[in-house]
Structure formats: C-alpha cells, structure tokens
Amino acid sequence: MTVTVAHALPADLDALAALFDAYRQFYGQPADPGAARDWLRQRLRFGESRALLARLDGEPAGFAQLYPMFSSVRLARVWILNDLFVLPAMRRRGVARRLLDAAAGFAREDGAAAIQLETTRDNAAARATYRAAGWHEDATQWYSLPLC
C-alpha cells in the first residue's frame, strides 16, 4: 500500500469534487456533485483555499482543505484545516495521518504561525488521530453565531 499526498491541481478537480461531495454527505448534506465541484473550483481558482489530495495505490482516497486567516496578536498567518476526509473503505491505512502531516508541512513552509482545526467533542476517532499526529487541544473556547 502506497499513500501519496500532493497539492490538488486543476486536473484533479473531478476526483477532489467526488471526495468533497462524499465528505458533505457524511455531515448530512444531500449529494450535489455539481455544487461541490463549483465550490472547489472557485476556492482554488481565486486562491481562497489550498487542497491536498491523497491517493492510496493511485486511487483517490481522501483530501484536506485549508483556509487562510491571520492572527493580529502574532502578526502572522494561521491556516485553518477546515476539511479532512478519507473514504470509509480507505480508512485505517495511514491516509489521514499523511494528510495531517502534509497540511502541517505546507503551513510550515508558508511561514504560518500555526495550523488549527475543530471537531466535535464526540468524534473520538478523529480526536485520537489528531493526538497521535502531535496535535493538542488548546485552551481556546470558540463561540458561534448562526446567521442563516
């Protein structure tokens, strides 16, 4: 088994969109491959996000998508690892770990002060994966105000 991770290129859009649509369905959204593709195309076209595509033995297996933000206190860029997904049939083969490592490597090379993510408290599998990759829960308390 060989896991490779690379920055998604325009030629990867169809494979990435299929994974992104599966990710959204995992979180209860209806299947909408066209909207998933359009969303990704716009984010990538305008540099609003960076996407990493993982392949297991050459087959698309998972992806990570990062969005930039800035820390005024640190006077530095911070990347948000907003999306991380591995197809269920491809899990427990090191794909998520490789995506996490690649995301951290990208942020480091970009000169970012940090990379952050959020997950639900009951997502024990994801939390264990993050901890095993060297991530830790911080003391920050996030608040959310739904607008629609």
Automatic annotation (TrEMBL):
<dbReference type="InterPro" id="IPR050832">
    <property type="entry name" value="Bact_Acetyltransf"/>
</dbReference>
<dbReference type="InterPro" id="IPR016181">
    <property type="entry name" value="Acyl_CoA_acyltransferase"/>
</dbReference>
<dbReference type="GO" id="GO:0016747">
    <property type="term" value="F:acyltransferase activity, transferring groups other than amino-acyl groups"/>
</dbReference>
<feature type="domain" description="N-acetyltransferase">
    <location>
        <begin position="3"/>
        <end position="148"/>
    </location>
</feature>
<dbReference type="InterPro" id="IPR000182">
    <property type="entry name" value="GNAT_dom"/>
</dbReference>
<keyword id="KW-0808">Transferase</keyword>
<dbReference type="Pfam" id="PF00583">
    <property type="entry name" value="Acetyltransf_1"/>
</dbReference>
<keyword id="KW-0012">Acyltransferase</keyword>
<protein>
    <submittedName>
        <fullName>GNAT family N-acetyltransferase</fullName>
    </submittedName>
</protein>
